[in-house]
Specification:
Elements: H1 56-61, E1 65-66, E2 72-77, E3 88-98, E4 104-107, H2 108-111, E5 115-118, H3 126-131, E6 140-145, E7 165-176, E8 190-192, E9 198-203, E10 215-223, E11 229-232, H4 233-236, E12 240-243, H5 251-257, E13 265-270, E14 290-300
Antiparallel strand pairs: 1-2, 2-6, 3-4, 3-5, 3-7, 6-7, 8-9, 9-13, 10-11, 10-12, 10-14, 13-14
Length: 301
Amino acid sequence: MHKFLTWLLMAFLLSALMLSSCSLFQVTEKDDKPLPVEAEEDLPDHELPEAEVIDLAETEAIERESTAYGIEYSMLEYGDGPLLSENMRVSLHYAGYLAENRKMFDSSYERGEPLSFVLGSGMVIEGWEKALPYLRVGDKARLWIPHELAYGETGRGPIPPNADLIFDLDILGAEDVEVPELFVIKEQDTLITESGLQIFLKREGSGELPVPGNILVVHYSGYLSDSTLFDSSIQRGIPVRFVLGASQVIRGWDEGFALLKEGSKARLILPPWLAYGDKGAGPIPPDETIFFDVELLEVQR
């Protein structure tokens, strides 16, 4: 949340970004399937070039302010745009460093593409979620984030366990996004597969069913069992693309989309063994049944 969050996540999950280094989207553990959002490649086990190091003296000399969450920040440049808040789609550039030795572990600048995510949706590490509401569009800031609000005791990719982090951020833009509306589903239009996947068809598409190897273009909104939204390509404004049957997404997606025609709208209800199992991922608890309202926009054969 991709191998995030995550998602993200759900990440980071994958569409908005195709990250080859350590992104901020939450992810499942390495043996888990990636979230059905920006399909992220496997994380590298090496650091970025040695030259990418913050000047230690300069870093220590910067005056810092503290938040209520143990995060410190310094304003490098003040913007005059709106203050960041939940349910804003934020676009920013960042560079991330290990606090211990000031070595860079990730940079959107090097990829030449800013990061875009919805604040408050759990798509990024908790330290960002807590710190960004202190900033506004146009700000440039440096954050010092304790490991408890970053990647914790386990670490991730080039980030070792218990690593405190430093981020330089450039807030490029932000806009309010609406919370997607849940589909209204008729119970009679239901398919239950042998695996336990449930498909509620809202609108049937046309043409032939997709086959493994086809590239699917999809809009989706993902919800916990209590209907709490945890991720949405609609809020990001960019549909996700993935290869059907290539294990780029969670198992329930590969199975479910194989049963939908182009143009279909449906709700996919995934039991834990078709989603994130007994470990969960990011905002998704262990052993959670989740569901997605999806639209299959295009099948590229």
